[in-house]
Design brief:
Layout lengths: L14 H18 L1 H14 L8 H13 L4 H18 L7 H13 L13 E6 L6 H14 L4 E6 L4 H14 L2 E3 L7 H14 L4 E6 L7 H17 L6 E7 L4 H13 L4 E5 L9 H9 L3 E5 L7 E3 L2 H9 L7
Parallel strand pairs: 1-4, 1-5, 2-3, 2-4, 5-6, 6-7
Antiparallel strand pairs: 7-8
The structure holds guanosine-5'-triphosphate and magnesium ion (MG).
């Protein structure tokens, strides 16, 4: 069943299912992150072997690996400052003791897990932003399936009206998911389409409204103006909307994605981030930097193109998967 594909998406499954799901979920996560892990862990495990003294040279080598994995300079420095403090406070001297400290400091930076959940708000409105090709429409399709699989009534707004193909792609996903699509046609005013969609969702007593938007021209002011207008229009049509502003980031883009995020955040304050395409990159370290740099938690990660490859982000699982090799307890 569809809802079983999403971790935590179904409260009714029994415990053995949960264990199977958990096991295969972790393996999928592990293989989805293989490229990042291979680069990260192979270098890291060499450094963290027993018998090497913890000194500044070692710390700098670790910093280099983190930066190469696209954790980013600022976040890496913060992380390693925290690690240095722990080493001092706990009087650690052997490099083999560092792994668990690094893991727990990464977890600290990630902050608590904040999964995307439909709260008691009808309709719960999700505005999806991100640059061209980041994975917005795909993520919306996967989310719509997840919600309809849970028996929720879903309306999707085709706010990307710049090209007909964008609506058609969304229409296919909606049909597959059993969600209702509100579209205005090519070149319709996006804010007007979204306004109609909020009213339609209210009128039909929908549980969830998800709004797709255009991604191109993110450096040009008109698109950002258009996005803030969409945000304002949603709030006018339904108090409190948008409840979730989900920024979709392409994990293969690396640090540039964080720069883009700041521009989007100025247009509409972001409440959560989905990092897609982690299966295609060795630079998955970007996930560690998101919360520290954007101030919004990673809520979803994409580790492939299949429906169940969009996952709730769980920091502890992510860190374990990053460090897990054959000799590590998963
Ligand atoms: N490998 C992989 N591919 C993904 C993932 N998520 C999305 N994609 C692919 O990325 C491509 C772009 O995704 P879209 O959803 O069309 O991106 P978009 O942000 O809507 O793009 P625009 O509408 O052009 O702004 C598609 O081919 C998706 O299948 C993922 O987690 N892993
Ligand atoms: Mg799209």
């Amino acid at each position: 069943m569809l809802r079983n594909l999403f971790k935590g998406g179904d409260k009714s499954h029994n415990e053995s299912d949960a264990v199977d799901e958990q096991g295969s979920w972790f393996n999928r996560l592990r293989s989805g992150l293989a490229k990042t892990r291979d680069q990260f862990l192979s270098q890291m495990s060499g450094l963290l072997r027993v018998g090497r003294k913890i000194d500044e040279d070692l710390m700098e080598e670790i910093e280099e690996i983190l930066i190469q994995s696209d954790v980013g300079v600022d976040t890496t420095l913060t992380l390693m400052d925290n690690v240095r403090e722990r080493v001092k406070a706990e009087g650690l001297s052997d490099s083999s003791e560092l792994g668990s400290v690094i893991k727990s400091e990464i977890l600290n930076l990630l902050g608590p897990d904040v999964p995307l959940r439909i709260e008691n708000e009808k309709p719960y409105t999700i505005l999806v932003l991100g640059v061209n090709g980041a994975g917005k429409t795909t993520t919306i399709g996967k989310l719509a399936s997840r919600f309809t699989g849970n028996g929720q009534h879903v309306v999707v707004a085709a706010g990307d009206t710049f090209r007909a193909a964008a609506e058609d792609q969304l229409a296919i996903w909606c049909e597959r998911a059993g969600a209702e699509l509100i579209r205005g046609g090519e070149n319709a005013e996006p804010a007007a389409v979204v306004f109609d969609a909020v009213h339609a969702a209210r009128h039909r007593n929908a549980d969830v409204l998800i709004v797709d938007t255009a991604g191109r021209l993110h450096t040009k002011k008109p698109l950002m103006d258009e996005l803030s207008k969409i945000g304002r229009v949603m709030g006018r049509a339904h108090a409190g909307a948008p409840h979730e502003v989900l920024l979709v980031i392409d994990g293969t883009v690396g640090q540039n994605a964080l720069m883009q995020a700041k521009i989007f955040n100025d247009a509409v304050p972001i409440t959560g981030v989905a990092v897609t395409k982690l299966d295609g990159t060795a630079k998955g370290g970007i996930v560690i930097a998101v919360n520290a740099e954007i101030g919004a938690p990673v809520k979803l990660i994409g580790i492939g193109e299949k429906l169940d490859d969009l996952r709730d982000f769980a920091g502890a699982d992510f860190v374990e998967a990053l460090f897990a090799d054959e000799t590590t307890d998963a």
